[in-house]
Amino acid sequence: IDGIMRAAHSIKGQANTFGFPTVGAVAGMLETIMTRGGEAPDLGAAIAHIQAMLDILNGGQDPDTVRAAEIFAALKAKSGGDGRARTALIITPSGTAARLCAVGAERAGYASISTGDEFHGLGVAARTHPDVVIVGRQLSLMDAQEFLAAAGEIESLSRTPFILVTSDDMAKTPNLGPLRPFGVAPFAATLPD
After folding, report:
1. DSSP E strands: which ranges in the chain?
2. Looking at the chain, which terminus has fewer C-beta neighbours within 10 angstroms, N or C?
3. Residues 112-131: what's their mean pLDDT?
4. Residues in CB range of 28: below 8 A, 6 or more apart
5. Tens digit of each residue's pLDDT (9 = 90 or more) over 55-107
6. Who contacts 20 (Cβ-Cβ below 8 Å, separation ≥6)?
7. CB-side neighbour CA atoms (13 Å) of 111
8. Which positions ≥6 away from 114 have C-beta within 8 Å?
9. Which residues pair with 132 in a beta bridge?
10. d(Cα 175, Cα 114) in Å, to the nearest integer?
């Protein structure tokens, strides 16, 4: 069981890097099954999740949105629960920021997948339907305003909450200017010493 947990965690972290975000989401679901409330894991459901990951990888590409939804529905039916971990998609070019966001998301009960490329991140979000998208304000190819505008054009993301991460001290400089139309509001959090 420990070996399955380690493998699921590694797959979840690396799948997106290699263009398989659905595999990453299924690996997050597998982690949830293996740690569900201290109960003994449902090994039948775990095997179904492992087989789903293998099927996707053997197909050589991540499934489209419709096929991904079918996979999630089938796994839900086999797991007896919701079959799906709450997921947080983290989009930031900073590896350090991505790791910090992942720790916070996982402590809040979310399986996390991350990407450093905002265009890839939009595609991942559209295909995997994360419960929340955490995006860095400083991106590589576009700014936060452009990113949020692009995300707003994707129908499947219309109800997805986005969290904008910035190192700006919003308590002292709450001027978000052009980001306000996207629902961005200041929220200050400080790290412990």
Report:
1. 87-91, 111-115, 132-136, 162-165
2. C
3. 81
4. 8, 12, 85, 87, 111, 112, 113
5. 999 999 988 877 887 887 778 766 655 545 577 888 888 888 888 888 888 77
6. 56, 57, 62
7. 32
8. 13, 16, 89, 90, 91, 92, 98, 101, 102
9. 88
10. 28
What are 98's two structure tokens?
């991505």
Helix, strand or coil, per DSSP, at residue 35:
helix
Contacts of 35 (CB under 8 A, 6+ apart): 5, 41
pLDDT of residue 53: 92
Give CA separation, 109 vs 76, 83, 106, in Å.
18, 14, 5
Confidence of residue 192 (pLDDT cuts 50, 70, 90): very low
Token readout for 23 is: 């595999």
162: tokens are 């986005």
Say which residue the tokens 């995300």 belong to.
Answer: 151
Rounded Cα–Cα distance for residues 31 and 36 (Å): 8
pLDDT confidence tier of residue 172, bands split at 50, 70 and 90: low
- Contact yes or no for 102/57 (Cβ under 8 A): no
Cα–Cα distances in angstroms (integers) from residue 92 to residues 97, 98, 120, 179, in the given order: 7, 6, 11, 17
The pair of structure tokens assigned to 150 is 């692009």
The pair of three-digit structure tokens given for residue 133, joined into one six-digit string:
């998208």
